[in-house]
Design goal:
The protein is mostly helical and about 190 residues long. It has 8 helices and no strands. It folds into 2 domains: about 40 residues, Arc Repressor Mutant, subunit A; about 140 residues, Tetracycline Repressor, domain 2, CATH 1.10.357. Helix 5 runs antiparallel to helix 6 and helix 6 packs across helix 7.
Length: about 190
Amino acid sequence: MKDKITAQSIRLFEKKGFSETSIQDVVDSLGVTKGTFYYYFSSKEELLMDIHLGYIDGLLNNQEQIVADATKSYKEKLSANVYMLITNITTQGPAAKIFFREMNNLSSEHLELIAQKRDQFRLNIEGLIREGIEKGEFRPELNAPIITMGILGITNWSYQWFNPDGKSSDIEVAEIFVEMILKGIQVN
């Protein structure tokens, strides 16, 4: 039931927003009582935190597997991170929207934990870029922190516009992004 409450809350938060969705809205949509809700969550904010943790922890776990893969080059690891972020929208798009849009509704204590995890994700990508520079896979003059923010900006914002059922698949969008990131857009 906890997973059902979470999944339904994600749908409602995506549609109406966190502040405009009440616990009563959640339980009514599931045909359960508030007691059922409070058995699993002490508050609506705890539920929001659970959604945030589920989203960022899933990304971090996948990223750590990518980074730890000694058979991949730094370019391949960077590409795998981009693919992961874009293809994740197919399965986690609503959770991504809530993650980015509703973060300001977390308590300062919860926000601090989420910010640490988000920063770790960013630092892992920055580390890949720095190591790729050191190993000669990326240009030596690159500013790793700015490149990292650019990559995260284009990938993270795609949850706003990317439609997994649209003209381009998640893999096609990821390939376009990887091509643009690794080769740029100017004619050589």
